[in-house]
Specification:
single chain; about 120 residues; 2 domains; about 60% helix
Length: about 120
C-alpha cells in the first residue's frame, strides 16, 4: 500500500508540475507578445513621423506642409501595410488619416480615454 500511494502521489505531483510549467509558459508568451506589439508600433510610428516631417536639402516642403501629398502617402501605406494611420497635432486634432474608421480632418481625436496620445506627445 505504501509504494502504491507513493506512485500515485508522484504521478499527481508530476501532473501538477506540468500544468504549472504550462501556465508559466502561456503567461510569459502573453507578456512577450504585448511587449513586441508595442515595440513594433513604436518603431512604425517613429519611422512614419520622421518621413512625414523630413525636409530635403533642396528646399522641398515636408509632407506635413502638403496635406494632399500627406493624404496620398498615408493611403498608400494603409493599402500596403493594412494598418490604420492618423496624424495628429499636439492638441490631438486630426491632420490626416488613412483608416477603416471614419475620421474628419480638423476633428479632435477622442478615442484614448486614458490620454495615451497626450502622454506620448508630451
Amino acid at each position: 500500500m505504501r509504494i502504491k500511494s507513493q506512485i500515485i502521489l508522484s504521478m499527481v505531483a508530476a501532473a501538477a508540475l506540468i500544468g504549472l510549467v504550462g501556465g508559466v509558459a502561456i503567461f510569459t508568451q502573453i507578456v512577450v507578445t504585448k511587449s513586441l506589439g508595442l515595440t513594433e508600433a513604436t518603431n512604425v510610428a517613429r519611422e512614419l513621423a520622421d518621413t512625414i516631417v523630413f525636409k530635403s536639402s533642396d528646399g522641398a516642403p515636408s509632407l506635413l506642409e502638403r496635406p494632399e501629398a500627406l493624404k496620398q502617402f498615408l493611403l498608400h501605406q494603409h493599402r500596403r501595410l493594412h494598418r490604420d494611420f492618423l496624424v495628429l497635432d499636439s492638441n490631438k486634432t486630426i491632420l490626416a488619416h488613412a483608416a477603416d474608421e471614419e475620421h474628419q480632418v480638423g476633428d479632435k481625436f477622442n478615442h484614448d480615454p486614458g490620454n495615451e496620445i497626450g502622454q506620448t506627445l508630451a
